[in-house]
Each structure stands twice: as C-alpha cells, then as structure tokens.
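Can't attach files on this board, so I'm pasting raw text. These are the components:
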Amino acid sequence: MSAENAIEIHDLVQRFGSFTAVDHVTFSVPRGEIFGLLGPNGAGKTTTIRILCGILLPTSGRASVLGFDVARQPEEIKKRIGYMSQKFSLYGDLTPQENLDFYASIYAVPRAGRAGRISELIELSGLGEHRKTLTRNLSGAWRQRLALACAIVHRPPMLFLDEATAGVDPVSRREFWDLIYRMAGEGTSVLATTHYMDEAEYCNQIGMMHAGELIALASPDALRAQMPGTLLQVDCAGPAQAFQVLEAMPGILEMAIHGARLHVSLAEPGQADELQRRLGRAGIAIRSLNAIQPSLEDIFLYMVQQRQPTPTHVVGE
Amino acid sequence: MDAVVEVIGLYKRFPQSARPAVHDLNLAIDRGQLFGLVGPDGAGKTTTLRMLASVLEPGGGRVRLEGHDVVKEAEHIREWIGYMPQNFSLYPDLSVHENLEFFADIHRMPPERKRARIEEMLAFTRLEAFRGRRAANLSGGMKKKLALGCALVHAPRLLFLDEPSTGVDPVSRRELWTILTDVVHQGVTVVLSTPYMDEAERCHRVGMLFDGNLLASGSPEAMATSLPFAIIELKARPRKEMRRIVGALPGIAEWRPVGDRLRLAVPRENGQVEALMQALQHRFADEGVAVDFMRVERPGMEDVFVHLVSERRHTA
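---
Top answer:
Structure tokens for the assembled complex are below.
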C-alpha cells in the first residue's frame, strides 16, 4: 500500500442483484490532490463514494482510503474522513455555532481544543456575523459553507464532496473552491463528485464515469488533448444558413448552433481557410472566427460516443 | 426587429418574504430569438417566467406579449404561448401519445390537425418508438422531451421553458439543445431559464438575474467584451513556483487556481495584456519554470456573472 496515495481502488465491482453499479473501476488519488468523479446521475459515483466511506461492502475488488482497507478497517476510515453532500445534514433549529458543536462531539473532537477549532472554522467560512442566526434562516450559500465547516471540524485528512455545490451561485461557488484549494494546499486530499461538468475544471484529475464504468481518467488538459479535431467558434450572419452550407464540406467532425454562433469541429486546423471560402461564396459575412477549447461536457459526450459506435445524438436535421 | 415580449418595471413580493422575488425588471425580447434568463437558485427566474407566461399575477409593472397585456388578455394569450414549468405535471398513467393528446384537447385542436401535429411532435422529440410507453416509465431526459412536446403541441409562437435541462444527463441535455435550436429555426421565440452558465452561451441574448434583480442583459458576445479585463490561462511547473511568481507580479487584477491551471484577470488597457504575458514568460524562463501553455481565453459567462455581482456589492 503506497503512502503517497490517499485513495487506491483496484478492479472495484459493486453489484445490486443483476445491476452492476460499479464495473471494474481502478484509480488512485495522490495525497493533497483534488480528484473529480464526473458523470450523470446513475453513473456509479455515489456508490463509489459509499464504498470509500466504508458504508458499503464491495462485491469484489479492493479499495483503501488513507492506507486502510474499506472491507477490513471501515471504522478507521470513518474516523478520518469528512463527508459533505448536496443534502447538507444540518439542524435548522440550531445556530451555526451549535451545529459545529454538535458535529465536533459526534467526531469526538477533544473538549480542550473544541471551542478554538469552532472559532477557527467560523472565521475560515466567514460565518462570524451569522453565528447566532438559526441555520434554517441562512441562505443556501451560507448553509453550504456551514456544511463544509461541519464536515472538516475534526480536521480529516480526506474529504468527500458529493454534489456539494449544486444550485449555488457562481460567486459562492468560487469562494467555496478557494476554501477547498486552501485545504488541499495544507495537505487535505479531496474526492468530489459532480454531474455538472464545468465544475470538474477545478480538479487536478478527473475520472469520467458512465454506466458504472470509468471511461476516462486524466487531468482536464490531458482530456482535452485526447479530443480529435480543432473546435472553431464562427460568429456570422445567419448561423442556420451557414450550417447548411457547411454540411457539404468534407472534414467536419461535428457542428452545432450556439445562439447566433456556430461551433464547428474540424479534422484539420488548416481547413479553416476552406470554411471561410465556402461561407464567403455563399455570401455569409463572418464577424469573427476563433479557436476555442472544448468543454468537459464535449469531452464526456465524445468519450461516451467512443464506447457506443451508434450516434447518440444527431447534429441538426 | 419587433419586441415580442416587453417587460416594464415588473415586481413581485410574496407575503411571507421580506425581500421581493423580482424587483423592477425591464426587458425586451425580439421575435425569433432564444433568450436565456440565467441565474442561481433563488434568483427569481421561476417567478419571472410565471409572470411572463400569465400564470402568476405581477405585483407591479407590466408584461406585454405581442402588445397584449398578460393580465387583461390572459385568455387570448394562452392560445398562442406555450409554458413548460420546471416540474412538469405529465400524467404518469397516460402513455406518451395520450399525454400529447390530452394537451392538444385542452387547446381544443380540431381532430385532423391534432392527429397530424401529434405525429409531428413525436418525430420532433424523437419519441416515436416510445409512443405507447407510460410517462411514469420514461427516463428523465425523455420526460423533459415529452413535456416539451406537450408545451409545443398547439403550435405556439412563443414558448416559455423553466429550467428545461435541470436534472437531465449530458447526452439528453445535448439532444434537448439540438431540439430547442430547431424550435427556434421554425420561427418560435423561446424564453428559457437556466442555472447553468455554459447554457447562456447557446442563447442569442441573455438576462442575468441575481437576488431578484436583472444585473445585465445582452448577447453573450457583447457581455464578454464589456468586461474591463482579459482572461489569461496558464499552466507551468512546478505548480508552487508558478503561483509564487504570478502572486508577486504587479498588474494582475485577480488570479485563482482552476485545477492545475491559473486563471488571471488582467486589465485590458493599452497593451497591458501582452506586456504582462511577456513579463511572465521572462520570469518563468529566469527561474527555470516550465510553461505548458499560456493563452488568452475569451471570458465565460461565469466570469461576467461574478464581475457583475461584485460590482453590485461595491456600489451597494
């Protein structure tokens, strides 16, 4: 068992009757890294987390967290991890301070240091002016910060975030990730799940899950590099007409209309000239033409398509 | 272009709440456009859409659709608008076909027209193969498509969609957007709400909502170029050194880690962006830091949103 890895999973399988929720998954998370498990609902993310938290016994394969085996040493794991989910388990009729105190006692934070730790967390999460407000009267963003503070009250070296930022505004989401980065910088390892593909940009490594399988495993940049073609954003008059004109052009991997703009994936970057010529001949004025980065959702859809040779969606009509 | 939707000083406060859900909202939406109301949970998106669709009475202000007042002429308006609520009440015990039929009957469509239109909707939403399946047994993505078909069955000219893609998996979400793009091509004006900033990029125009207020509206392009700073993304190793060097360099408005990369906001005044990139290259070279990439990125809608919210906080 390597000491550098906070999580090690080898050939993990979880079956529920005839349904395979996790299908031969292998990956590891180095200490102090932020790992993102990405996929739609039902892909197997939450089942994987439940195994890692020592709540669910895997059907086969091995998994360890912080060097402890999930099957043999689940209690050792539970003491050392923090867990925060979309449905924050906070007590609405307690104040933030009281919620933190409650979680500190559950996690057996020694009485001597408890008050100090709680003050520190209230400071860290910026909850100072709300420390005496009933939790149910806090906004979603404040409740989320409190939930994070509760999940780390016992200074866990491993933190699980299960859809932790769903529905939160972008400003709060950035502030939330600033906190996560600060913790990672201090050595905390993080495994975050999200079905919101954008969010995974924050992770060092991404595992993409689909129907229980791990279909891709790499950093966001490395995943982008695996995408074939060059993605262009064409801002032109009449993107629908441009779409029709370009349908006849060879070497276009994919095309989609985005509002007033057209996204075109070219097999070869050199084809941009040909694209401009064709639009020019059709009398379509190009306002701008830029190479853009594919989104993680683009990449996920590409990876899924690679597994299923039949096209799952058709561009246009 | 003429405004199909005109919103003037729209206001709504619910009795149990101290703060208005929608505050002094002004909007004009042109015919044939795909307009996105973008904002997080609690921003006022659903309340706004419900008032636009004449389902909820405004507390103040006016909404006119094609010049008709949504309060005084609600009956007339409902003949040619479609509205899909966020939690659409499809009839779970009815089949796909029966649900479409039910919504066609509500709009009193003549039998011939109804039959043809239902077939059109089945083809359009790619649900032909599932016409006999009970709605309860459809996947999340298929339910959304059926709900969309039901909202479109009476061939409305104007369509309101409340978070059509929330809770839908990425494959279905992409398909839904392809269908929506087709709806717009057929000449229908579409107003939708979404919490996803990346979906804002797919709209002709966007209105950003936060705390019941419209922060700004315009095309995604115009919003991105209106930002007073450019975005530079870079990745260099070792990571710690990269952060140290960036943190010590003057002229950067803000920087933050995003995964292995750093995302820098740099004021766009007179060549500052180029100068800064050069300075960074030099520093990295001097200190032996390997640069994987450094590039100017177009600001995303999230950058725009965050900027607008922070400006608002400063002026408040």
